[in-house]
Write a sequence for this structure.
């Protein structure tokens, strides 16, 4: 059952996202991780600011300008741009500091959506968990093809190499959705404490608008509950929240990104 207040889930989903970023950026050699009492900074080997170089403030008492200055220092020393994920309701001071520094806002706010119960099974595609290194490579090809320029296949391949590491991590499940035996969509499920987080959902262009991503999210949601989660969440791209509402998700908050200069 959902709580009387969403505050607990807003905080716990944020914590889960941070841990997901830390794990994801630590899969391959060549990334970096900085963590102290007030912030986390992590980068995967590809060094793409919008997808794999991220900074989080973990203590809201840390002054916003000081936090951004420290982020600039950590990433700048490595010649990297980076993004900050901001909670619309809680990080207004960081937003104002980012404005003063001319940090670009990546997109409109994205809904953070959650579901507290199992949902209907997949109906438009066959979905399975990746269990082999060949499957990881296939997943990379599918996701790289789905995201295209935003996350080039070679960059994604580098960030998830060697494949054996991601298979050995009990918190991560890679998923592939197939039509007539052909993998056409992929996604990732990350389990942290009592929450499951669905990310990196993408469908190859020619198979979109056929319910494939919805089938994958249905499968991932129920898998999260099978693994012991009490709730499963995701971030909806702008204009797509109605798709996940149809599955059973509801919006509890909004987030957006800023990118360094």
């Amino acid at each position: 059952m959902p709580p009387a207040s969403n505050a607990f889930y807003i905080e716990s989903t944020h914590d889960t996202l941070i841990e997901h970023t830390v794990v994801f950026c630590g899969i391959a050699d060549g990334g970096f991780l900085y963590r102290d009492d007030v912030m986390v900074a992590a980068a995967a080997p590809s060094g793409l600011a919008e997808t794999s170089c991220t900074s989080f403030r973990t203590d809201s008492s840390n002054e916003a300008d000081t936090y951004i200055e420290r982020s600039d220092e950590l990433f700048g020393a490595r010649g990297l741009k980076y993004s900050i994920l901001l909670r619309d309701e809680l990080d207004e001071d960081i937003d104002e500091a980012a404005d003063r520094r001319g940090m670009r806002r990546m997109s409109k706010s994205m809904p953070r959506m959650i579901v507290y119960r199992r949902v209907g099974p997949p109906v438009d595609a066959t979905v399975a968990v990746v269990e082999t290194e060949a499957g990881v490579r296939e997943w990379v090809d599918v996701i790289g093809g789905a995201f295209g320029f935003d996350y080039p296949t070679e960059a994604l391949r580098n960030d998830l190499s060697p494949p054996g590491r991601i298979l050995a991590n009990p918190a991560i499940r890679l998923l592939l959705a197939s039509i007539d035996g052909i993998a056409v969509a992929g996604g990732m499920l990350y389990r942290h404490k009592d929450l499951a987080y669905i990310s990196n959902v993408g469908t190859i262009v020619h198979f979109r608008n056929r319910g494939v991503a919805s089938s994958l999210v249905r499968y991932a949601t129920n898998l999260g509950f099978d693994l012991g989660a009490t709730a499963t969440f995701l971030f909806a791209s702008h204009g797509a929240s109605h798709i996940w509402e149809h599955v059973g998700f509801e919006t509890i908050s909004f987030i957006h990104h800023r990118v360094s200069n």
Notes: The mean pLDDT is 92. Residues 7-25 form the longest helix (19 residues). The first strand starts at residue 32 and ends at 35. The two ends are 43 Å apart (CA to CA).
